[in-house]
Design brief:
This protein is α/β, with parallel strands linked by helices and about 350 residues long. About 40% of the residues lie in helices and about 15% in strands.
């Protein structure tokens, strides 16, 4: 398949992570997480987030989000999130099916939700006829590639605490957010008031695997049973853990994210120079959102596939990955420039 800007999920496995998988494949190990790889990877997460953090590994992002949220809600509860949130848009009805509760969405132009909008969504508390809000869920970075500042996360956490709610963070691209903020993971998660975090690995060079981190002590009670019931307990757990161990060693996570973010910034800088192309969102992480003339889009997709994010606005999403190259950027820019010049001639 040709190189694409469709998704960082399209990228292959980073060589260092593939090496870790091969090394973990040499002999027998205890199953279901009672292995030294899982012990070491869990310790590395505790080094980042605190010794009292509980760490659980799962297969994928949907499992991480849904099972993490399941510890916080009952079926009569509701979850406040962005109208673009992954749990609302891209995880089908898995949250509704497995959580049994309602998602209350807030319209957003930049992917973020803000305290005022959250406050307005907290209604009819104590009314038995109305779902009771229990969780605020945010994505970091957002589905628009924008990044919440530390102060923005704290402001949302303050609303959560005021109303006795939990704060959940979908961190499928959390490494890209950390690089964007020039901050350590803990500063914009646990220290900012996040209770439960989905820590992504797949979009940052892993083959598969995500982590659920319970940052507030006591929330993971009985989660080992929830993970099993939710079909996310990997028997050969070491093959998830070994990947995270590699990702967290020598800051591979940071190197991968830094490169992907830099490629997105470079791509956006080139697109900004072109007449007929309009960058629509702040390029904070590894995604570039751009509106293009409708006739140009399919022609450009012939050479570099990408997704049209908003078909009404002809807004396209261009995602960079750890393995996006300068040549990829140059070729894409050249073709786009040629197409726009022909259209404008």
């Amino acid at each position: 398949m040709k190189r694409t800007f469709a998704s960082d999920n399209y990228a292959g496995v980073h060589p260092e992570i593939m090496g870790a998988l091969i090394a973990a494949n040499k002999d027998h190990e205890v199953s279901y997480g009672a292995d030294p790889y899982t012990e070491r990877a869990s310790k590395m997460f505790k080094d980042h987030f605190g010794d009292d953090v509980d760490v659980f590994f799962v297969y994928n992002g949907t499992g991480a989000n849904v099972l993490g949220l399941s510890t916080l809600v009952q079926s009569f509860h509701s979850i406040i999130c962005s109208s673009l949130a992954h749990i609302h848009v891209d995880e089908s009805t898995a949250p509704e099916k497995f959580l049994g509760c309602k998602l209350v969405t807030i319209e957003t132009s930049d992917g973020k939700i803000y305290p005022e909008g959250i406050e307005n969504s907290i209604q009819r508390v104590g009314d038995q006829h109305h779902p009771q809000v229990k969780v605020i869920s945010i994505s970091q970075p957002t589905e628009y590639g924008t990044v919440y500042s530390i102060e923005e996360v704290k402001a949302i956490s303050n609303v959560a605490k005021k109303h006795n709610l939990y704060l959940h963070m979908d961190g499928s691209r959390i490494a890209n957010a950390a690089v964007s903020l020039s901050a350590n993971f803990r500063s914009f998660t646990r220290d900012a008031g996040v209770d439960v975090l989905s820590f992504g690995g797949t979009k940052n060079g892993m083959m598969f695997g995500e982590a659920i981190l319970f940052l507030t002590p006591g929330l993971s009670k009985s989660f080992q049973y929830v993970r099993k019931q939710g079909m996310q307990l990997h028997s050969k757990m070491r093959f998830i853990s070994a990947q995270f161990e590699a990702l967290l060693t020598n800051e591979l996570w940071k190197r991968n994210a830094l490169h992907a973010n830099d490629m997105a910034r470079r791509l956006s800088q080139e697109i900004t120079k072109m007449e007929g192309a309009q960058i629509t969102q702040s390029v904070d992480a590894n995604g570039v959102f751009v509106s293009l003339p409708p006739p140009v889009i399919p022609l450009l997709q012939n050479d570099f596939f990408f997704y049209v994010w908003n078909e009404k606005k002809f807004e396209c999403r261009l995602m960079c990955a750890y393995d996006t190259t300068g040549v990829d950027i140059e070729q894409f820019v050249r073709i786009l420039k040629e197409l726009l010049l022909k259209r404008n001639a």
